[in-house]
């Protein structure tokens, strides 16, 4: 059931989409210190082509809202679109397409929060013991209701980042709002098109998400070969050298399993002189062109890490080419980038001189033979206020800059977007990081599985999803005497009031069972596989884990079955015409019994344990399996 009613006298509307009821909502436009609500405008309605257009005038704006109601057999819904015209110059900070005039309360059973870039996803369950912190769900939110599901979603390819906000209360969500973060200067007569907001309901939350992904896809893509690689970052960080890269390359080339499956060797952060000075440093005596030749001679494709929009303060650009830097509110450069206590300016991606720099940079490294480019810290481009002297639409700015890099790198290069704002949309990058940084520590697994699960529907539709590194080193899987020698968290320590917990946290590596969970998630998600251990320091158990991971037959995209029930999804399924896999994960600190019903898996198939190869029986009447703490049961058909 769906219904929409607009009251021109009050400027408010009420909508019912399935079990979701939105009462007393309007539009609102924030310009500087003023907030103009729909209740402040004079409204009239006109019909055109069977669509009602509601037009509001006053307070320096003219608003047009079009409402389309649709039903496709699987879901009911409405789409709000239109534009805002400005009758005087202003700074438009944001536009609320859904602005609550009343309390704006809804009462879902759970709500899926989506982060702006990699990581940041969370399942909020109701009722709660006490009110929670306000949330920001970028681009969409999905809700489990008493009767079915609802999805509130903007189109992903946005000129302006869009989000849904609200405050969790004990029984539901208050002040539910859907906004566009515009942050641009407008002149008299300028128009800003509303990013279409679609609200749909249906019986399956998974189906709503998957249909949303299909609608956001700009066309057919090649997902026939899963990207598999070794990356230098997680073990070496900034200490990576040419010699260490080649030691891992040689081991891979001589290994009967790894050599058949690893396609790319990616040198991550640490090869360059500085962010912004993308020239080789002293640790790579053969130069990056020489390293590329060596990797290719071993039968693999070279890849390289860049932070294309970050300029460190000791770089040549920062010292001598300030006209290439984006600026702040007074149109002066600043340092809005910070990571691990490293600071940086932002490259002005709209300035012609900067665009030429980016084009020549990626053309040069592509000509050296690099076929894979990991582009990091992308979201920080949006931290600057002015690009080329104006406040640019941030989504369009990102697309234009990355399109330039794509043209320079070539259509056949593989580009990974890291810290990738999802309003860029598909069609430019080949793969996208979906989780935050993964490391061989249990708390990293617990944190990142939430985002792997919440974005499962993107994989193999919009791009290859990259769940970050498949790493397994620890006391059970490694012979590394240097395992605890490096601690990058030391940069956060002061000379007084030091935090000993950071040291303990970093040094607490995964057990064998925990490593199996991390590697199982890398396999079952069905996206990019990126090893990042020092392979020569893994023992036989560790090497067995990485070999089985890269050699796993492709079974398609994994689906978290209990996405809307558990904060950390416990049950996954992965299937295609080649067979099925099921993953059951115990995140608890004690053993847990899992009921496996005949309806949970296809009991007509034969199964084996993915990690041991042991044959397992699952009777049609169902069974139960006790899984140890921080462990999993990962089975596949054969």
Give the SSE layout:
Blueprint: E1 2-7, E2 12-17, E3 20-31, E4 34-37, E5 42-48, E6 51-58, E7 61-71, E8 76-86, E9 90-100, E10 110-113, E11 122-125, E12 135-138, E13 140-145, E14 148-154, E15 162-168, E16 173-186, E17 191-193, E18 197-202, H1 205-216, E19 228-231, H2 233-236, H3 242-254, H4 258-261, E20 264-267, E21 272-274, E22 277-280, H5 287-297, E23 301-306, E24 310-311, H6 316-320, E25 337-339, E26 342-346, H7 352-367, E27 372-375, H8 394-409, E28 414-417, E29 431-433, H9 442-454, E30 464-466, H10 500-506, H11 512-525, E31 529-531, H12 540-551, E32 558-560, E33 571-576, E34 579-586, E35 592-596, E36 607-609, E37 615-616, E38 623-627, E39 631-637
Parallel strand pairs: 19-20, 19-31, 20-23, 23-27, 27-28, 28-29, 29-30
Antiparallel strand pairs: 1-2, 2-3, 3-4, 3-9, 5-6, 6-7, 7-8, 8-17, 8-18, 9-16, 10-11, 10-13, 12-15, 13-14, 14-18, 15-16, 21-22, 24-26, 25-26, 32-33, 33-34, 34-39, 35-38, 36-37, 36-39
Helix pairs in contact: 7-8, 9-11, 11-12
Tell me, rounded to a whole number, the average pLDDT.
96
Give the proportion of residues in helices. 10-25%
Task: Catalogue the unreliable spans.
Answer: none
Shape summary: globular
Outline the structure in words:
This protein has 638 residues and is an alpha+beta fold. The chain is built from twelve helices and 39 strands. The strands form seven sheets. Strands 5, 6, 7, 8, 10, 11, 13, 14, 17 and 18 form a ten-stranded antiparallel β-sheet that branches. Strands 1, 2, 3, 4, 9, 12, 15 and 16 form an eight-stranded antiparallel β-sheet that branches. The protein is globular and about 75 Å long. It starts with a strand and ends with a strand.
